[in-house]
Amino acid sequence: MLIPQTSTSLADCLRLRRQKLANLIKFPVILWSGTNSPRNFPANPFPFRANSHFLYFAGLPLPNAAIRLEGGKLELFMDDPSPSSTLWHGEMPTRNEIAQKIGADVARPMTELESWIEDAVTLAVQDAATWTQQSQLLNRWVLPQSPPQGIDLDLAKAIASIRLTHDEAALTELRKAAAVTVEAHKVGMAATPQAKLEAEVRAAMEGVIIAHNMTTSYNSIVTVHGEVLHNEHYHHPLQPGDLLLADVGAETEMGWAGDVTRTWPVSGKFSSTQRDIYNVVLAAHDACIAKIQPGVEYEDIHLLAATVIAEGLVELGIFQGNPQYLVEMDAHALFFPHGIGHLLGLDVHDMEDLGDLAGYEEGRKRSDRFGLSYLRLNRPLRPGMLVTIEPGFYQVPAILNDANVRSKYQNVVNWQRLSEFADVRGIRLEDDVLVTAEGSEVLTAALPNDADTIENLVGR
Amino acid sequence: MLIPQTSTSLADCLRLRRQKLANLIKFPVILWSGTNSPRNFPANPFPFRANSHFLYFAGLPLPNAAIRLEGGKLELFMDDPSPSSTLWHGEMPTRNEIAQKIGADVARPMTELESWIEDAVTLAVQDAATWTQQSQLLNRWVLPQSPPQGIDLDLAKAIASIRLTHDEAALTELRKAAAVTVEAHKVGMAATPQAKLEAEVRAAMEGVIIAHNMTTSYNSIVTVHGEVLHNEHYHHPLQPGDLLLADVGAETEMGWAGDVTRTWPVSGKFSSTQRDIYNVVLAAHDACIAKIQPGVEYEDIHLLAATVIAEGLVELGIFQGNPQYLVEMDAHALFFPHGIGHLLGLDVHDMEDLGDLAGYEEGRKRSDRFGLSYLRLNRPLRPGMLVTIEPGFYQVPAILNDANVRSKYQNVVNWQRLSEFADVRGIRLEDDVLVTAEGSEVLTAALPNDADTIENLVGR
Ligand SMILES: [Mn+2]
Ligand SMILES: [Mn+2]
């Protein structure tokens, strides 16, 4: 474990964060960092990823550690490296060195944690070794697959309210993630003319992330089949008429995420049908970002995207009818079947481990509507919130070939006209947008998104 | 899930494998594939890695599946993709299509598995969701952290004996892994002169692996601090006098692993001290490979490496005394504190999920000796076994600064002379070697290892 040198004091930032928590929660809070998850055998684990709530209040990705927060005080529980771990893993900072770095008031070995659990609340960590330990120590089930319950629910609500808007230290990290993500996309575009397979473009993009000593914040999507929304295959050959959709994001060493999507023509030149649809998606993207400001409902941003897409498809002759009416009957979801975006922070879908607790304003629930049910965020926007804006257009066979869907939307879709757009299987445009007092700031603005510039970046 | 087209029939290969198992085990065998492990929230998992025993007998990395083997018959249990999974993940092959591909006699939905568990033996899968399910269905603990017990132990022994030597289909995959691993190392060497950080060389190497649509078979080591044996940090700058140690391997889509280490000078030119030690390690490497043939004890290969290293260090004046005697007193382990290698197959330490069951001949146990305790393989070699040969030289502060160690070896080490080799912190050379009827075949022989050629590959 490397202790990074930060320009502003990590300890000061963490002190402010836990003061906010102390104002909301009177119980002692214990947060575990988690441990490695094994891959095919215990000594061959996946790379360690610390629990995000721990990271937020402890600041460093320490494996096998816990922190206890009470009344603004920070207690660190972790073991000093063993002599054999020094042999295999080198000299590591001691517990006391780390305690000093993060401004802990006390540092104790992990075995003492059991003496400090009375009345403590917690949140479940993802790996089984740790949630088992949490459950045993606290003598109640603490399960990552179930939403927080009882006294833990109050903690979840308090942390969600704090993490919902980002402080300066978080924004510094998020800007780093955004910058490397932007570079990865530029390199991906430039690598496309020489690439024969999706995997080769993925390699170029992830290479940038690895070279910056970062990781991907989620499994990359790099595909000529953008109509498969969560496509994690990379074996398809690139054909000259294809669009390549790349949804790739970097995560900093401290765990903060970027999340960007661009779609570009493999040949470096959009066909006229591809360009027409691309510009519809871009218009939705730009309209949404222009509307972002404090007080605006995120659901209204989503509906704005739906409306702009519907308008564009009416203009292209794919839809027929009044755009507002098309959105009311969820016709947009035929081609845009997901939400306009989500919270972004330490998690790519920030705090999704808490279910909809962070994404949905208290008292609100997911809609049953085909065109709204996938919306991950439904709150009024506030300064300091970071959200993605990611409209798209997809021709998903499972939707468009569904007999019920076809009959319901028989009269609003010009299927004949649609067939002329067969070379547009999937387009998505996604940026990371910070809500500011004045409106918004696009953290990933350095990555162009207009069709002409994209063509130039791909080269020929 | 893509069904790959293989040149020889996957079904025929799998039939032979399970016939071997049927000859050894009369109980029905159920093997689970496992499921995704969550990263920071359930919808953001690590990439899926199927259990290796499942992979060996089912041939494809199918998530959330199980196979039942009895008397040479294969029954596949998995669910057809749901309509919503088709929306998000695209058209997937059906259960019946997969059953045909792998030559299953029967294919059933996962819910029917509970009707087929009577008298079944199994091996634990690593992820908690699956081993919990295994334990519940079989009504006994099936835990990945504990060695197989009771009737499962017989299964473990049978599978270990089968997987210990590789069939042609396995070797085809292992040669693919070796070829991409070799290319990754060549690209890493070539990328070094332009790189400022370890992470940049790592990116170049892993980029090759990703571009071939493969994954790394373990977390890469790419470090100028080779003396830290399991160094998974990549943040150090590259300095002209540094040696860079890269232990990086590719794993094919079907799960078969490569595992190669090279050590090269960042400047493209070994210092004379670095070259001297490099040639000692290379001499040990070459002597070990020359000695490999059926019937030879792997422990003797290890001791040969120890002896060649001791001889070389005597010649350089670092050791004083008789090499044979130095090895008997474990002096070699001062600088070579790990084993000469391990089994390689579907796992980088093949079948290490079974503890030492595969690595150690029945009745043998790990030695207590400082110079032997880390040996992962202790069996007579047989044709078809794939092993690594990976001698090294390291100046590990935790060993060399230990007062007990220094006093024990006070008279055999010329500490003054040793101090002249301060620019050699860690060197390792590792290749993947197949035991053949005639002797051996180095699957990774296309990657040079002599000092001059390495210098040329690094370029200037
Ligand atoms: Mn997103
Ligand atoms: Mn190895």
Automatic annotation (TrEMBL), chains A, B:
Identify one Gene Ontology CC term for this UniProt entry.
cytosol
Q: Which Gene3D superfamilies match?
A: Creatinase/methionine aminopeptidase superfamily, Creatinase/prolidase N-terminal domain
Q: Quote the protein name from its UniProt record.
A: Xaa-Pro aminopeptidase
Catalyzed reactions per annotation = Release of any N-terminal amino acid, including proline, that is linked to proline, even from a dipeptide or tripeptide
EC annotation from Swiss-Prot or TrEMBL: 3.4.11.9
Instruction: Keywords in alphabetical order, please.
Output: Dipeptidase, Hydrolase, Manganese, Metal-binding, Protease
GO BP: any one term = proteolysis
Query: Residue limits of the Aminopeptidase P N-terminal domain?
Result: 9-138
**InterPro entries documented for this protein:** Aminopep_P_N, Creatin/AminoP/Spt16_N, Creatinase/aminopeptidase-like, Pept_M24, Peptidase_M24B_aminopep-P_CS, X-Pro_dipept-like
Tagged with keyword Metal-binding:
yes
Cofactor(s) essential for the protein: Mn(2+)
Per the record, the similarity remark reads:
Belongs to the peptidase M24B family.
Q: Which SMART domains match?
A: AMP_N
One MF term from GO for this chain? metalloaminopeptidase activity
